[in-house]
Design a protein that fits this description.
By secondary structure, the protein is of the alpha/beta class. The protein has 13 helices and eight strands. The chain has an eight-stranded mixed β-sheet, sandwiched between helices.
């Protein structure tokens, strides 16, 4: 009997160690959840929703409108950019007509929406949002970057609602990427997909909030930057943006726009950044070639998409024109607005 007791002792120690590990993990989990709950209350006081939530069929999207006039200008953001990204543009437009920005499903203050996040799905939600919010067509659409595809798809599905358009760094209809840059895009997508798999778990246990604490609470950066980081760690945002990238790289978005009609006589302004592509240095011939294709494609877009199309290079701006040259966007909208009202 004594020999059995001595033989059983090592296993007793193993059990104690195992329970200690379980206890530590449980303590860490409880601490993480408590941390998240505390920071959630702090963030609720730190960040405030602008606009109103509108039901679009069982889930709600946030829309923020200002000013008076018609046509109403609708601002469509680029990838990973909530409605707040128009904070320097919207006030200028509101001085001469009504203007609305909104958070796509999964973005900002909006609820999650159905997957996948195809252009047609986004447009149907936007159409319902504008109707249910009491905004009436015709609209002037402003599409930045990824938003270009959305506004062109809107014109495809609801052409009578569109009075004119401003495309900001929207890129050409087709952009052929060299193998090196395509490989970078695919690697980025894999990182996004991996992040999506663990997003809910990391958020629930407070890890994502802890890792982003300096960006959310720090003194560096603008108020918009801090709010962006607060929104970017949320699982709904990660799921939505990853789905948008998946559809773009798979060719689904391009296929949806394959038979999109031209604008005809509707006025069009195309703004092209003159300060490098996405602010990145042109360190290789591949980037030089893509940059040329990017600019040339947008010029062709202005020439062929509308009989009243114009284009302009904004020499002192990168891809992030809404932040760097909001006045250029406001001026382009004012020109399109003037044409539609005369």
């Amino acid at each position: 009997m004594a020999k059995q007791t001595r033989a059983a002792r090592p296993y007793g120690w193993l059990r104690r160690i195992a329970w200690m590990i379980v206890g530590i993990l449980l303590l860490l989990a409880i601490s993480g959840i408590s941390y998240r709950q505390i920071k959630t209350r702090e963030d609720a006081r730190r960040f405030h929703r602008e606009g109103k939530l509108v039901d679009v069929g069982g889930y709600k999207l946030n829309i923020n409108c200002a000013g008076q006039g018609n046509p109403v200008v609708v601002l469509e953001s680029g990838l990973e950019t909530p409605a707040k990204g128009w904070w320097l543009v919207q006030p200028g437009i509101s001085k001469f007509t009504r203007v609305c920005s909104y958070d796509r499903a999964g973005y900002g203050w909006s609820d999650s929406g159905p997957m996948p996040r195809k252009l047609s799905q986004i447009v149907q939600e936007l159409h319902t949002l504008l109707q249910n919010a009491g905004e009436r067509p015709p609209y002037i659409f402003v599409g930045h970057s990824f938003g270009k595809g959305i506004v062109l798809q809107y014109n495809k599905l609801y052409p009578n609602d569109v009075a004119g358009m401003v495309l900001v760094e929207g890129g050409p209809a087709k952009l052929k990427l060299p193998d090196s840059i395509r490989a970078m895009s695919q690697a980025d997508l894999k990182r996004r997909q991996a992040k999506r798999r663990f997003a809910s778990l990391l958020y629930f246990f407070g890890m994502s909030r802890f890792l982003a604490r300096k960006n959310i609470e720090g003194a560096e950066g603008s108020a918009y930057d801090r709010e962006w980081y607060y929104e970017a760690i949320q699982p709904k945002f990660i799921r939505a943006t990853t789905s948008e990238v998946e559809n773009g790289l798979s060719g689904d978005s391009e296929a949806e726009l394959a038979d999109a009609p031209a604008l005809g006589d509707k006025p069009l302004e195309v703004l092209i950044a003159g300060k490098g592509m996405w602010g990145l240095p042109l360190a290789s011939q591949d980037w030089v070639d893509v940059r040329k294709s990017w600019v040339d494609g947008q010029i062709q877009l202005a020439q062929h998409l509308s009989r009243r199309g114009k284009w302009r290079v904004v020499s002192d701006s990168t891809h992030m024109m809404p932040d760097e040259r909001p006045d250029a966007i406001v001026d382009a909208v004012r020109e399109v607005y003037a044409v539609t009202t005369h």
